[in-house]
UniProtKB/TrEMBL annotation:
The keyword Zinc does not apply. This is glucan endo-1,3-beta-D-glucosidase. Residues 359-444 form the X8 domain. The lineage of its organism: Eukaryota, Viridiplantae, Streptophyta, Embryophyta, Tracheophyta. One of its GO terms (cellular component) is plasmodesma. GO terms for biological process: carbohydrate metabolic process; defense response. GO terms for molecular function: glucan endo-1,3-beta-D-glucosidase activity. Its EC number is 3.2.1.39. SUPFAM superfamilies: (Trans)glycosidases (SSF51445). InterPro entries: GH, Glyco_hydro_17, Glyco_hydro_17_plant, X8. It is a lipid-anchor; GPI-anchor. It catalyses: Hydrolysis of (1->3)-beta-D-glucosidic linkages in (1->3)-beta-D-glucans. It is found in: Cell membrane.
Length: 498
C-alpha cells in the first residue's frame, strides 16, 4: 500500500470507528405489581449476578434508585401515566419532577433516559394533547440543569398507534394521533432521542388465532412454504418481532421522519397461563427470550433498517401477581424473587454456564470489501490480533476469502481486548454471533475447542425497574386479513423461482 493509500485507509477507519462504537444491548424491565418484591438491594444483587447493564423502572422509586448507585447499571426511569397530565400543564411541576427524580441521583445513579408514560396514547387518549408538552417541559428542565446530553426523553408506544402493521412497508400511524405523533417525532428528532416501542409477538400470535405459524412469533425457522415476505420490498421477514419494528420505522417514514432509532422498551413471553392460554408455557417463554437475546445481540436492524441495531428491554424481571387480567398477565417474570431463573437463559451469563455464554466476533456477510480489508489490516496491525493462523498453509487460511480472514482476525482481537473495552465493530463490518465459526483444523479464539481458559464472559446486560404502569394487553397484530394475501404472494414468488 502506498503511503497515500494508507492515509486514506486510516481516515476511513477512524471515521468508521467513531460512527458506531456501541452495540445493541439487552436490558430488563422491573415491574412492581407484586406482593413480595425483594428489598431494593437484593434486586440489584440479582441484576449484578446476572450482569445486567440496563434496567427500566416504571417510576422513579427512591429505594431502587439509591440501590442502583455506583453499580454502573444504566437506568431508565418512568413518569407514571397519572403524572403526565400535571407535568404537561406546568413547567414548574416538570422542573420539580426532574430535580427530585433525576437530578438528585446523578451522577452516582446513571440515569440515561426518561420514559414519559407507558403506552399513554392508547391507554389514556385524552392525555394525547399534553404528552409532547410534558416531554418538552421535562427537557427544558434538563437543559436548565445541563443534563440534556446525558438523559434522553421519549415515551413508550404500543403497536396500537399503528393502524396497519403488515406488510411493514405500508404501515402508517393511526391518523387519530396524526398531530400528536408528528409533534412527538419532531421532538425526538430535535433532541436526538429515540422512539420507544413495545413489541409483543405473543399478543400478535394469539390474536392471529392460527394465522401465523408459531415459529414466526418465536424466531424459529419457517418452513420453505411459509416464508413471509413483504410484497412491496420483497424483504423476507423471519420473525414477527422484526416485522413489528420495521412497521414502526415505515410509519415514521410515511410522515417523512428518518434517522430516529427505535429502542424496544418491552418484549417478552409469559410462561404460565389459564386453560384458554395454551401458548403461555415455560418452553415457549424460554424459546422466545433466548432467541430474542440472540436476535438483539446479533447487532443488526430489521430488513428495512439493517444498520440500526435494536436494543431491547425484556419484559420482565419478576412475575407481578397483583396485575389484573388473565393468568398469563401475571407470569412474565424470568426470575423468581429468590434470584433463581425460571428457565435457562443460554446466551448470557444469566446461568453460570460457560460454554453457552460464548460469543464470537465475525465479519458481517455482505460487508463492503474495502472496509473489510481495512478492518483486517487494522486488526492484524495496530490491533495486534494474532493473524498467524490465516497465513498461507496455516489451518485458517482456507477458505481464502476476506470474509474468513477478517472474521478470524476480528474475533482474535475481540477476545484479547474486550475485558479492557475492545469492541466488535470494525467500522460496522463486524457482528457478534453465538455460533462457533471454527471449522476443520481451524479453531477460533474463545472456541470451546481451544484450550484457552477464562476467556469469554457474556456480552450482554440486563436491568431492573420498579413500579407501576400498564402494559397494554391489546397489542395489535399485523392485520390478519392483509397477511393472507401476503403469504399467497410469497408462495407465488417461491414457486416461480423453483
Ligand atoms: C453512564 O452511562 C453512559 C452511557 O453508557 C456512559 O457514557 C457513562 O460513562 C456512564 N456514567 C457512569 C458514571 O457510569
Ligand atoms: C384508530 O384509532 C381509533 C381510536 O382508538 C380507533 O377507533 C380506530 O379503529 C383506529 N383505526 C385503525 C385503522 O386502526
Ligand atoms: C394523517 O396523516 C396522513 C399522512 O400524512 C394523511 O394521509 C391523513 O389524511 C391524516 N389524517 C388526518 C386525520 O389528519
Ligand atoms: C413527504 O415528502 C414528500 C416529498 O417531499 C411529499 O410529497 C409528501 O407530501 C410528504 N409527506 C408528508 C406527510 O409530509
Ligand atoms: C442476524 O440477524 C439477521 C436478521 O434477522 C439474520 O439474517 C442473520 O442470519 C443473523 N445472523 C446471525 C449470525 O444470527
Ligand atoms: C427459588 O424459588 C423457586 C420458586 O419458589 C423454587 O422453585 C426454587 O427452588 C428456589 N431456589 C432456591 C435456590 O431456593
Ligand atoms: C464450565 O467450564 C468448565 C471447564 O471447561 C467445565 O468443567 C464445566 O462443566 C462448565 N460448566 C458449565 C455449567 O457448562
Amino acid at each position: 500500500m502506498s503511503s497515500e493509500k494508507w492515509g486514506k485507509a486510516i481516515f476511513l477507519l477512524l471515521s468508521l470507528f467513531c460512527s458506531d462504537a456501541s452495540g445493541a444491548f439487552v436490558g430488563i424491565n422491573i415491574g412492581s405489581h407484586s406482593t413480595s418484591l425483594p428489598a431494593a438491594e437484593d434486586v440489584v444483587a440479582i441484576l449484578k449476578a446476572h450482569q445486567f447493564t440496563h434496567v427500566r423502572l416504571f417510576d422513579a422509586d427512591r429505594r431502587m434508585l439509591n440501590a442502583l448507585a455506583n453499580t454502573g447499571i444504566e437506568v431508565m426511569v418512568g413518569v407514571a401515566n397519572e403524572e403526565v397530565l400535571g407535568i404537561g400543564e406546568s413547567p414548574s411541576v416538570a422542573a420539580t419532577w426532574i430535580n427530585k427524580n433525576v437530578g438528585s441521583y446523578l451522577p452516582a445513579t446513571n440515569i440515561t433516559a426518561i420514559a414519559v408514560g407507558s403506552e399513554v396514547l392508547s391507554t389514556i387518549p385524552h392525555v394525547a394533547s399534553v404528552l409532547v408538552p410534558a416531554m418538552s417541559y421535562l427537557h427544558r428542565a434538563l437543559v436548565a440543569s445541563n443534563l440534556n446530553f446525558q438523559v434522553k426523553i421519549s415515551s413508550p408506544q404500543s403497536m396500537d398507534v399503528i393502524s396497519r402493521s403488515f406488510p411493514p412497508s405500508t404501515a402508517t400511524f393511526n391518523s387519530t394521533w396524526n398531530s400528536t405523533i408528528y409533534q412527538f417525532l419532531q421532538f425526538l428528532k430535535n433532541t436526538g432521542s429515540f422512539y420507544m416501542l413495545n413489541v409483543y409477538p405473543y399478543y400478535g400470535y394469539v390474536s392471529g388465532d392460527g394465522i401465523f405459524p408459531i415459529e414466526y412469533a418465536l424466531f424459529q425457522q419457517l418452513s420453505p412454504t411459509k416464508q413471509i415476505v413483504d410484497p412491496n420490498t420483497v424483504f423476507p421477514y423471519t420473525s414477527m418481532f422484526d416485522a413489528m419494528v420495521d412497521a414502526a420505522y415505515y410509519s415514521m417514514g410515511a410522515l417523512n421522519f428518518s434517522g430516529i432509532p427505535i429502542i424496544v422498551t418491552e418484549s417478552g413471553w409469559p410462561w404460565l397461563g389459564g386453560v384458554n392460554e395454551p401458548d403461555a408455557t415455560v418452553e415457549n417463554a424460554e424459546t422466545y427470550n433466548n432467541n430474542l437475546i440472540r436476535r438483539v445481540l446479533n447487532n443488526t436492524g430489521p430488513p428495512g433498517q439493517p444498520s440500526l441495531p435494536v436494543s431491547t428491554y425484556i419484559y420482565e424481571l419478576f412475575n407481578e401477581d397483583k396485575r389484573r387480567g388473565p393468568i398469563s398477565e401475571k407470569n412474565w417474570g424470568m426470575f423468581y424473587t429468590n434470584g433463581t431463573a425460571v428457565y435457562t437463559l443460554s446466551l448470557t451469563s444469566l446461568d453460570t454456564g460457560n460454554s453457552s455464554s460464548r460469543v464470537f466476533c465475525i465479519a458481517k456477510h455482505g460487508a463492503d470489501l474495502k472496509s473489510l480489508e481495512a478492518g483486517l489490516d487494522w486488526a492484524c496491525g495496530q490491533g495486534k490480533a494474532n493473524c498467524l493462523a490465516i497465513q498461507v498453509g496455516r489451518p485458517c487460511y482456507e477458505p481464502d476469502t476476506l470474509q474468513n480472514h477478517a472474521s478470524f482476525a476480528y474475533n482474535d482481537y475481540y477476545h484479547r481486548t474486550k475485558s479492557s473495552g475492545g469492541t466488535c465493530d470494525f467500522g460496522g463490518t463486524a457482528m457478534i454471533t453465538s455460533v462457533d465459526p471454527s471449522h476443520g483444523a481451524c479453531v477460533f479464539t474463545g472456541s470451546l475447542r481451544s484450550d484457552m481458559s477464562g476467556i469469554s464472559t457474556p456480552f450482554s446486560a440486563f436491568g431492573p425497574v420498579s413500579t407501576e404502569s400498564a402494559r397494554g394487553t391489546t397489542l395489535q397484530v399485523p392485520e390478519v386479513a392483509v397477511l393472507i394475501p401476503v403469504i399467497l404472494v410469497m408462495f407465488q414468488i417461491f414457486s416461480r423461482s423453483i
